[in-house]
Amino acid sequence: MNVEFFAAIDKGRQRDNNEDAVALDEDNALAVLADGMGGYNAGEVASGMATSFIRSELGRWLHDAGAAADADVRRAMDICVDNANRAIFNAANANPHYAGMGTTLVVAVFRGPRLLVGHVGDSRAYRLRGGRLQQITRDHSLLQEQIDAGVISPEQAAFSAQRNLVTRAVGIEDTVLLETHLHEVLPGDLYLLCSDGLSDMLDDATLVQLLRSHELLADAGRALIDAANDAGGKDNISLVLARVAGQPQVGRSSWWPFRR
Q1: Helices 204-212 and 217-230, interaxial angle, to 10°?
Q2: CB within 8 A of 203, min separation 6: which ones?
Q3: Which of 31, 187, 200, 222 is deepest in the core (most CB within 10 A)?
Q4: Distances (CA, A) of 16 to 75, 97, 186
Q5: In this structure, what is the dihedral angle of CA atoms 28, 34, 39, 42, given to the nearest 10 degrees?
Q6: What is the dihedral sign for C-alpha 59, 65, 69, 75?
Q7: Rounded CA gap, 158 and 258, in Å?
Q8: If pLDDT is split at 50, 70 and 90, which confidence band does 151 have?
Q9: Is residue 189 within 8 Å of 244, Cβ to Cβ?
């Protein structure tokens, strides 16, 4: 299946620099998005290292591997993210200005009728299918753990002061666990990868309305960023849109033959 991509980043309204990064390898249907953290511009160093490393290394592997099995693609993704994690961790330990830097991560690889998604932290992936938006990643965050434990409700979480405390990030420790899911892809599917600078500012109904209101991905992407800024633009905003060619369908549920 052919996939059309669009990516964009924006500083937002309240930040002096941009610690988000995105990278595309359209020839290999690969998208990477990261939201960095750390002082003295270290966040943008971490996110830039993660996206450029994974685009280069995983893109090269995908090109050389051809029609590899899904399990092999997942293994390659794990290895590339692990290598990126070690590079960021070592850089943080070698340079006092970069101490404690890290980044969230979302990686998407389209393989014909399948999509492999890997993520770390609270940057997200969504799928719009048949007018229904579904979040296909689950945040690695303190807030999500509290929701899962029944401590707070999703409605209360929207106003929590702990929204941005992640429990997993790339580069913070010498190892990192990448969570991976495999999804079925149908013609007309529209996928959104984004940092919390977008998802914290716009609710699901607004995301759906804006995604469905624009035929061109570039127009939809710019509308999402404008809306996030109009809502306050409290953080950097990054997004990747990926649309699968063909007429939209209401298909079977996604499936997960593996999950880590």
Answers
A1: 140
A2: none
A3: 31
A4: 38, 18, 40
A5: 0
A6: negative
A7: 30
A8: low
A9: yes
Query: What does the pLDDT read at residue 160?
Result: 57
- Answer with the residue of higher pLDDT: 32 or 249: 32
Q: Provide the residue ranges of all domains of the chain, joining segments of one domain with +.
A: 3-244
- Look up residue 52 and give its two tokens: 């450029």
Tokens of 143: 């807030």
Number of other CB atoms surrounding residue 237 within 10 Å: 31
**Confidence (pLDDT) at 66:** 83
The H or E element that residue 191 is part of is: strand 190-194
Farthest-apart Cα atoms in the chain, separation? 52
Cα–Cα distance for residue pair 202/223, rounded to 1 Å: 12
Q: What pTM value is reported for the model?
A: 0.90
Kindly report the three-state secondary structure assignment for every residue of 126-140.
EEEECCEEEECCCCC
Q: Are 180 and 77 in contact (CB under 8 A)?
A: yes
Q: What is the DSSP string of 89-103?
A: HHHHHH-GGGTT-EE
- Summarize pLDDT for 228-260 with one digit per residue, the tens: 999 999 999 999 999 999 877 654 444 444 444
* Distance (Å, whole) CA 140 – CA 167: 5
Of residues 143 and 25, the one with the higher pLDDT is 25
Q: Please check whether the domain covering 3-244 is classified as CATH 3.60.40.10.
A: yes
Matching residue, tokens 């592997």? 61
